[in-house]
Write a structure and sequence with these properties.
By secondary structure, the chain is an alpha+beta fold. 32% of the residues lie in helices and 40% in strands.
Length: 210
């Protein structure tokens, strides 16, 4: 997987359906251990609740789990997981807490309520795209510094750090798919005077505007 979608931040939202209170909580996670820690923290926070239903999807080991936590099979955990899948999210955990209000919702009502609670929590958290990027350094003469700076700015290449000594060294980040073209451009732009060194692959988080 090159780029992937997750939630931007931890968030929660609640609504009432026929006197039952549903609280959706979600958070970005990077491991299954983090996902379970989040689930357990909500279970502890809402220990007096009737149900604490959860679902999570984590890229690590392709982990995907859900729990109905006592609700009828297929009416709670799976609908929450379905929301994550339909939204195309990963590295995310959602817990939907229910305080039973005394009125039965029926199978369809439960599915709709847990789906709505999960969606509300995700909407409150916002979406983030994690883009696979390449971190690299460019060592150049001072005579090429201005034109390289203009090139970086024009092409949306993020300069993380610049060091001035006998030469100028820019440490930059760009989308991995653009790395080869950028390298070719820099060589052409400086007539081969600049040297480029690949440093590492990393993922960079960017908010997805709705």
């Amino acid at each position: 997987m090159e780029n992937y979608l997750s939630v931007l931040r931890a968030a929660s939202a609640e609504f009432t359906e026929r006197k039952s209170v549903f609280i959706g909580s979600c958070a970005p996670v990077s491991t299954e251990e983090e996902a379970l820690e989040f689930v357990n923290s909500l279970r502890k926070k809402y220990a007096d609740a009737t149900h604490n239903v959860y679902a999570y999807i984590v890229r690590e080991n392709n982990a995907c789990r859900f729990s109905d936590d006592g609700e009828p099979h297929g009416t709670a955990g799976m609908p929450v997981l379905d929301v994550l899948r339909k939204e195309g999210l990963t590295d995310v955990a959602v817990v939907v807490t229910r305080y039973f209000g005394g009125i039965l919702l029926g199978t369809g009502g439960l599915v709709r309520a847990y789906t709505a609670a999960a969606k509300l929590a995700i909407d409150a958290a916002g979406r983030a795209e994690w883009a696979k990027c390449a971190r690299f350094s460019v060592r150049s003469d001072y005579s090429d510094h201005q034109k390289l700076t203009y090139y970086f700015r024009k092409n949306g290449i993020e300069v993380k750090d610049t060091t001035f000594s006998e030469t100028v060294v820019n440490e930059c980040i760009v989308g991995s798919e653009l790395m080869k073209n950028v390298a070719d451009d820099i060589v052409s732009l400086t007539n081969g005077r600049a040297t480029l060194d690949f440093l590492a692959d990393e993922y960079v988080k960017r908010e997805v505007k709705s």
